[in-house]
Amino acid sequence: MYAQMVKSEATQDDPEALAAFQARIDAGEKIEPKEWMPEGYRKTLIRQIGQHAHSEIVGQLPEGNWITRAPTLERKAILLAKVQDEAGHGLYLYCAAETLGVSRDELTEALLAGKMKYSSIFNYPTLTWADIGAVGWLVDGAAIMNQVPLQRTSFGPYSRAMIRICKEESFHQRQGFDIMRKMANGTKAQRHMAQDALNRFWYPSLMMFGPSDKDSVHSAQSMAWKIKMNTNDELRQKFVDQTVPQAEYLGLTVPDPDLRWNAEKGGYDFSEPDWTEFFEVLKGNGPCNAERLAARQKAWDDGAWVRDGLMAHAAKQRSAPIAAE
Ligand code: BYC
């Protein structure tokens, strides 16, 4: 899978090289693509950045579903711009992954073959216009909570991609909140739609941060390498603490009867999502998994002629005799 291999296996096992690498990470240095890195570090980054890129691309589907049905021309223009931003995020992230020696085609093929994942959240449907508000407010809100610390991640291209992505995500979050504000202050039917969207998106949004720390297989190593800057539970807690007052401002009720402010810890106590549902979604059994993958497969198949044309053009350019002076 990895076209650009790092040094020999012996070098990979070299304790001095590993210690020097860890010392660079501990000192807060950025690791750049052509520098020596342990194979595990490279593979973890390809997995995480690739999964992140796939999420941005698949994430266009539930929102793209509403572009033609947005209630006003202004809302349509805003949503169109947001969905285009998500495509851009996917492309920066595929580029960051490519610097690690894996091609975009290989990543897409791995996704379509079920060997790579995308965020669980995009396997839930967007049934009403209020869902578009909830996606911006909660899903982009959770994404920002996760991605702001990733601006300091140890791999240079990933951290730099995150800086631009986070700026755009904060607009996305605000546009979602603005839709929710309008709906929550609208007619009785609109308030009902807003509450219903919060009810359906609350727990799937909490799941975006990944399994609880005790079940997170990658966190310890990823944090030692500063690929991840926080644990899943730390970020989930921060998200709840930030979002509950926003729901109160909107006059909406978070669908958790056990939600309580805990003065001692300075945060909310809240109910865990249904982790059985989360792992089922990861296995492909969520409400929209089949539909999302079918859409990606169709886009991949429909685009084959473009890729073939570009490759043929590039081959022709390479083999063309150099023009005489
Ligand atoms: N969904 O050991 P763990 C967006 C998997 S897009 C699916 O804790 P890790 C947006 C995990 O991969 C934002 N799978 O893993 C776009 C692992 O399985 P594998 C997307 C999940 O990597 C459009 C297993 O569970 N953001 O904002 O240390 C429109 C064990 O987990 C999920 C990113 O991708 C999940 N939610 O931590 C609107 C952020 N959670 O791979 C908005 C970058 C866990 O061993 N990624 N798994 O088979 C990360 O920060 C980390 O990868 C995670 C998981 C926190 C997600």
Can you give a write-up of this model?
The structure is a single chain. 66% of the residues lie in helices and 2% in strands. It is built from 14 helices and two strands; from the N terminus they run H-H-H-H-H-H-H-H-H-H-H-E-E-H-H-H. The protein has helices at residues 9-13, 15-26, 39-58, 60-64, 73-98, 104-112, 129-150, 156-184, 188-207, 219-224, 232-250, 275-285, 289-302, 304-319; strands at residues 260-262, 267-269. A two-stranded antiparallel sheet has the order 1-2. Strand 1 (260-262) and strand 2 (267-269) form a beta hairpin. 35% of the residues are buried. Residues 1-10 have low confidence and may be disordered. The protein binds benzoyl coenzyme A. Residues 47-48, 51-52, 55-56, 59, 86, 117, 119-120, 139-140, 143, 146, 207-211, 216-219, 222, 228, 232, 282 line the site of benzoyl coenzyme A (BYC). It comes from Roseinatronobacter domitianus. One of its GO terms (molecular function) is phenylacetyl-CoA 1,2-epoxidase activity. Keywords: Oxidoreductase.
